[in-house]
């Protein structure tokens, strides 16, 4: 089995700027590469950086580029790192792509931070993509959810499932 990891940006990939002045973050190299290198994994993988944006800056043009890439790739097991603020919107936009299992994940703190949830969320995404059949999902906070049935709670910051 081979998993394709796609970086789109978000907090998971953020790092301090390399300049001496400023407080802003910048999107760094894919965090998933560092996580997988230190893990005892039993699968092959490839990492592609499609774009590096904070999720608040991701627009429908970016989503169209992502969807076209997903439709054209030969890979059928795909994990996408994405910022949590607009993850459900992007995952819903991508929708179900026949023959593909797609899992979006991210982190609340950059992977480079000691207390980050990045390793855990990537692990949940990897476990999920191994057992799920086709569809698009979100793996955050130890939960696996459909993009249409979840949201990021504005108070807690956690992903919750909508009441139907």
TrEMBL record:
A single Gene Ontology molecular function, please?
Answer: asparaginase activity
Residues of the signal peptide: none
TM region(s), chain numbering = none
Coiled-coil boundaries? none
Active-site residues per Swiss-Prot or TrEMBL entry: 11
- What is an example of a Pfam family matching this protein? Asparaginase
Q: Which InterPro entries match?
A: Asp/glu_Ase-like_sf (IPR036152), Asparaginase/glutaminase-like (IPR006034), L-asparaginase_N (IPR027474), L-asparaginase_N_sf (IPR037152)
L-asparaginase N-terminal domain location is 2-152
User: What's this protein's name?
Assistant: L-asparaginase N-terminal domain-containing protein
């Amino acid at each position: 089995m081979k998993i394709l990891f796609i970086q789109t940006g978000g907090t998971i990939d953020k790092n301090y700027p390399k300049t001496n002045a400023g407080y802003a973050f910048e999107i760094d190299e894919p965090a998933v590469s560092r996580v997988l290198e230190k893990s005892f994994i039993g699968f092959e993988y490839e990492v592609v950086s499609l774009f590096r944006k904070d999720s608040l800056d991701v627009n429908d043009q970016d989503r169209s580029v992502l969807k076209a890439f997903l439709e054209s790739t030969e890979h059928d097991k795909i994990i996408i790192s994405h910022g949590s603020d607009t993850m459900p919107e992007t995952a819903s936009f991508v929708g179900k792509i026949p023959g593909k299992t797609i899992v979006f994940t991210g982190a609340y703190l950059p992977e480079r931070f000691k207390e980050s949830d990045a390793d855990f969320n990537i692990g949940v995404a990897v476990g999920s993509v191994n057992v799920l059949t086709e569809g698009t999902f979100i793996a955050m906070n130890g939960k696996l959810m459909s993009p249409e049935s979840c949201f990021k709670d504005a108070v807690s910051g956690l992903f919750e499932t909508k009441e139907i």
